[in-house]
């Protein structure tokens, strides 16, 4: 018996034979698919989609199971051929020489030793009549849906989806297909398609009704969502509402769905359904290097502190355990309130206390401030904060030096990386400007910081990646001796120049060393995959520090180079191990090693 497609016969395809062994059968099952004259890619797709060919590998080896798989293949293979533009296919599936469609499932054979699938594709079809209307104002029918173009169900479905999407973008959320006439003319190998759309009325946004199991207060959800009641319907607005709510980090599920029936006043209501994430989360981190010793960190997060999706983040870090410097650390908090300013804006409060024990300075400092954040997209944000900064420092210029600042810190971040913890393509840019006003005898000025990174996938699927980084820093206003050491710049260590001791490069001051008022750091890495999870990395880092606000030709510099290994931990990023050696400069101190989680940059 021959099975023919509802519209006809397909082009002559290439032959491929697959041999499957099943331990449940007395002998090997021979399974063959041939498609004389068919393109190789089409033949592979037919093979991969065949339930009969894959049945033994899936543990289906009884005669009834093989027959059922063969019967399912008729529809599957015909649909694939239609998708590729062959509307006159002939498909034969024979089990030990008998057409599968003619075998009574009640009286299946005692055994099946051979499956033969033969596909006659017939000629590829082209569009004869190709019409879809009405179309949304200012839009065009996709160019592949036109008389004389290759015909396929893929093109038909894509054209319908695009045309309905155009109507929805124009404010017609209930647009749908009305009448459609599709006819295959086998003698001419042409497909006629005449599709009528029903756009329905243009609607405006109505109300958003909050549903689901959430501990976030309804009025807070509405303020964060910024639902555009009264505006003309747009799918982009619906997506933006969902993005704003997900961005809070409070919800495990956010679903915004339109109601089936519009309101009598020409508006359309929506249902917003929520499920909350666990309120609390704790995270730990560790990083080890040969000079700085072990750094341990912990973060505790509350995702919904007062029922308004407000996010409290507490951080604690202990540094230099077993290192060459004294143990120090930091504690801090940040409380973010996303409902105070409305959609895309939030207020935050921050504070921190820190003790830094460095080779060239010590400081006890505290910060308290308040700021606002503006989120332009998932990739771009800016924020500004004002606050007080207290510091009590000992450095190359003396001990017990006190610094009091009232400052404004602005921060801009643009992140276009394909993966934040293990990027292979894209770029990242962070820029900060922090003007400060000195209180008491402290001098006023400003600090500028910039960190730019770029990634090129020069292999395939991230197998060979070239990464580059540039860091810039500058302090303008006061002289070197009039600036708190926390605002000055050193070079060396995991964050700047690997292979050089941590913060080993600065500005000589007598027998001591101070930080510089300017900094330039350059890094490059070549990352190559050895296996799916293991990569090798070669890197080179360069840093220079100057005593003026801008790097000059006489500024001291140093560099380091080395090799590293990465083991991919999935969503956590790679486990990192680097060995580095100084290549230039006078601060080198032999081989250094670094262990951490995530790429170096």
UniProtKB/TrEMBL annotation:
Keyword entries, A-Z: Membrane, Signal, Transmembrane, Transmembrane beta strand
Source organism phylogeny: Bacteria, Pseudomonadati, Pseudomonadota, Alphaproteobacteria, Rhodobacterales
Location within or outside the cell: Membrane
Organism: Ruegeria aquimaris
Keyword Repeat tagged: no
InterPro entries for the chain: Bac_surfAg_D15, BamA/TamA_POTRA, D15-like
Descriptive protein name: BamA/TamA family outer membrane protein
Domain POTRA: 204-264
Signal peptide, first to last residue: 1-28
Bacterial surface antigen (D15) domain ranges (all copies): 304-601
């Amino acid at each position: 018996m021959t099975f023919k497609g509802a519209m006809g016969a397909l082009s002559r395809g290439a032959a491929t034979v697959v041999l499957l062994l099943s331990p449940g059968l007395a002998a090997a099952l021979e399974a063959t698919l041939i498609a004389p004259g068919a393109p190789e890619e089409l033949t592979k797709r037919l093979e991969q989609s065949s339930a009969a060919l894959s049945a033994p590998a899936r543990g289906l080896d009884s005669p009834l199971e093989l027959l059922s798989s063969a019967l399912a293949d008729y529809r599957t293979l015909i649909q694939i051929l239609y998708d590729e533009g062959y509307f006159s296919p002939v498909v034969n599936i024979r089990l030990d020489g008998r057409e599968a469609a003619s075998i009574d499932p009640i009286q299946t054979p005692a055994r099946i030793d051979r499956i033969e699938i033969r596909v006659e594709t017939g000629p590829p079809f082209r569009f004869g009549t190709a019409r879809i209307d009405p179309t949304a104002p200012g839009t065009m029918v996709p160019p592949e849906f036109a008389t004389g173009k290759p015909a396929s169900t893929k093109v038909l479905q894509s054209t319908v989806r695009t045309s309905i999407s155009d109507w929805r973008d124009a404010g017609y959320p209930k647009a749908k297909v009305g009448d459609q006439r599709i006819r295959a003319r086998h003698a001419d190998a042409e497909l006629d398609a005449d599709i009528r759309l029903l756009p329905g009325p243009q609607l405006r946004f109505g109300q958003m009704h909050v549903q689901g199991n959430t501990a976030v207060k309804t009025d807070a959800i509405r303020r964060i969502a910024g639902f555009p009641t009264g505006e003309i319907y747009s799918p982009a607005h619906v997506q933006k509402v969902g993005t704003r709510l997900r961005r809070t980090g409070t919800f495990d599920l956010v679903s915004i769905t339109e109601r089936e029936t519009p309101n009598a006043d020409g508006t359309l209501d929506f249902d917003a359904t929520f499920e909350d994430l666990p309120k609390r989360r704790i995270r730990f981190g560790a990083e080890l290097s040969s000079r700085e010793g072990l750094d341990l960190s912990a973060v505790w997060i509350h995702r919904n502190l007062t029922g308004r999706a407000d996010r409290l983040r507490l951080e604690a870090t202990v540094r230099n355990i077993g290192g060459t410097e004294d143990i120090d650390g930091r504690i801090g908090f940040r409380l973010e309130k996303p409902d105070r300013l409305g959609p895309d804006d939030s207020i935050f409060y921050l504070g921190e206390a820190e003790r830094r024990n460095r080779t060239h300075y010590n400081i006890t400092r505290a910060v308290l401030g308040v700021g606002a954040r503006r989120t332009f997209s998932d990739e771009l944000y800016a924020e500004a904060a004002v606050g007080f900064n207290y510091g009590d420092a000992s450095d190359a210029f003396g001990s017990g030096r006190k610094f009091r600042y009232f400052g404004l810190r602005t921060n801009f971040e643009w992140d276009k990386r394909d993966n934040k913890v293990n990027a292979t393509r894209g770029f990242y840019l962070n820029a900060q400007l922090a003007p400060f006003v000195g209180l008491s005898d402290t001098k006023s000025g400003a600090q500028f910081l910039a960190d730019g990174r770029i990634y090129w996938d020069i292999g395939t699927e991230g197998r060979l990646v070239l990464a580059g980084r540039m860091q810039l820093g500058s302090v303008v206003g006061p002289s070197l001796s009039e600036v708190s050491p926390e605002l000055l710049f050193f070079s060396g260590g995991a964050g700047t120049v690997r292979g050089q001791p941590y913060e080993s490069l600065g500005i000589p001051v007598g027998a001591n060393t101070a930080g510089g008022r300017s900094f330039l750091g350059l890094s490059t890495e070549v990352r190559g995959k050895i296996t799916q999870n293991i990569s090798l990395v070669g890197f080179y880092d360069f840093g220079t520090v100057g005593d003026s606000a801008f790097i000059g030709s006489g500024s001291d510099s140093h560099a380091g180079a080395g090799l590293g290994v990465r083991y991919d931990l999935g969503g956590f990023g790679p486990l990192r191990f680097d060995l580095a050696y100084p290549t230039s400069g006078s601060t080198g101190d032999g081989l250094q090693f670094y262990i951490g989680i995530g790429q170096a940059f």
